[in-house]
Amino acid sequence: MSTRKVRSGFTPTATGVALVAGLAAGAIPSENLDAAPPAPWSRSSAYALGETGLLERYDSNQANSVWSDDDTWNEIGADCSGYVNKVWQVDQFKTISQNYHGPYSTWHWYNNQVDGAYQLALPVGGGAIEQLNIDVWVRRWTQPSNGATGGHMGVWEGSYDAATSKWKLWHAKGTDWGILHEYKGASYFQAFSLDGKDYTVSRRFKRTNW
Amino acid sequence: MALLRRSRRTRLGVAAVVAVAATAITTQAILASSGRYASEIRPASRLEFHPDMSSVWEGLPNVVMPQRPNVLLSTGERIEFTGAGGLTSLEAEVAGANLRSSGSAGETLSIDMPKVVGSGPMIVEVTQQFGSGERVHFPITAYAVSDDEELERAVVRASSAQATPVARLSWDEVTIIPGDEGDIIGPQAFVTSDNKVFFLDTAGARVLVLDARTGIRHGSIDLPSRTFSDIAISPDGSQIVAIDQVNALAFDVLREQTLSLPLVIKFIPLGVDWVLQEGSQLSLRSPADGAVYSFALLTDKGATMSELAADIDQARPFFDEDGLYIQTGLENAPVEVDLREFGIARSGLSFLQVEPQTEGLVALVAAGSGQSSLLVSGVGRVDLITLGDLQPVGAMNNPIAVSNGGSVFLATSDDAGIVIWEIDLPAA
Fold first, then answer.
1. pLDDT at B42 over 60
2. pTM listed for this prediction
3. I need a surface site. Which of A54, A193, B78, B87 has the fewest CB within 10 A?
């Protein structure tokens, strides 16, 4: 015999309202992000810098990492690893307007070839509330028929939302899309095959020297 | 097993005289036995003028009644309202049965319906008498059971998916950008209407149109950009719009018309489900709380920003610390499903998509093992269907669709391409 629960009427959450009102993202920090980043890098600074990229659009992104905070369409933007490298400020401190990608691609991240005080945490969460603030995820794919490979990565904005089992992530999604924030469910980080390509389970990195 | 719990009891109190007649109730009368969820039941938000229905009803069999008038479920066929005036009486009639009971203002009304056999939704015809002489007629839907245990045992059921393939797209027919230092961009969503599948081939900047019976491709409709992330269909199927948040565009697929959306849509994260409600009202389901929010009203000349409002009437899923809950269309009568009793761990569970259709709810959930299940909820019932090999397309934001007729479709992939299945829902 089950116990019964009586629930009160539903009240829209502040988060839900903020999402629709457009308040959840896009706020421009008051600090001057084009100034030289401070060292050591902090989680809050990374958050502020990463947020400036949201809504940034561009047509070409390969091996670049530069963006403004003007919501205009630019010819050069950031690829996914370039965006992550700059949010985490590896391997050098660079401003958002300095087109510096850094030496690390998704391959380097996925294969633990990134120097620094980082901790590989597997697997990507689920279940209990996880603190994922500005942690990094990366996934690779291979195409057995021709040996082609590729990958994608990004950062989590905040905690795993136990209420809805969604993650909100920031990533340089690609040409046409730009840098976006996006909700994803657990399956996004799991392995699957599509169009002859095998996508791996995402790996998660924590930074230990904030 | 205690799989489903109900939060409200069988009570109805009214502020005036009430007469009730009841008829035989059969589940099949409301929920089609074909396994499709009835589409004629829908929220009747027009009943807001009737605050005195926010009360309780007690009797045998138990009847779960909505607690607020603006969330009553209705066939919508006989709603009349002819004028204002003070409420003096209220009659409720369950079509067909010669059962009556009455009460007066402020009393708790007890109704005995001994001729009622079985359990299932029923339609109650309500007549409201005002002091000025005006009478208001409207039907409401309630769910009847003979006792609590029956409700808990009978309504939640688990099964394995049986499905029929209705359409197939080879990998040559859809556009996949695998993602090299960028995200995988593939088909994002689809809707079904009038035996057609409208498949959003995002990276190909088009909507593919397929016959849902033969699988034959009718053609395609070009989109103005390659960043449309969702597609939505109106309740009556007369309007289908694709949504491009990046460029703040809506594209009316059937009219081939591009509309500008309020620029604030750029600030809304991708991954929300867009919902096209009655009257060309574009809304979104927030992953933050599962509620549906009005966003913009679509017109031929463009879109106007809607007043921010959450539609709490919509079915929605939500978690708390110990389980997964589903609020069906019965406001304040959420059913509670503990997935642990199906052998599905809470850990790693997530909704991929919620697809509300009429009062029903379809939620696709993914377990940590990678196995997915389809959770389908209608009035008074919940079916959890293990998908087994039918795993949704990993790169799609919205891999399920519900037709206006209540059929459920799922997109999967294999070595050859994408397959769209119609899931055979358990018969009511």
1. no
2. 0.73
3. B78
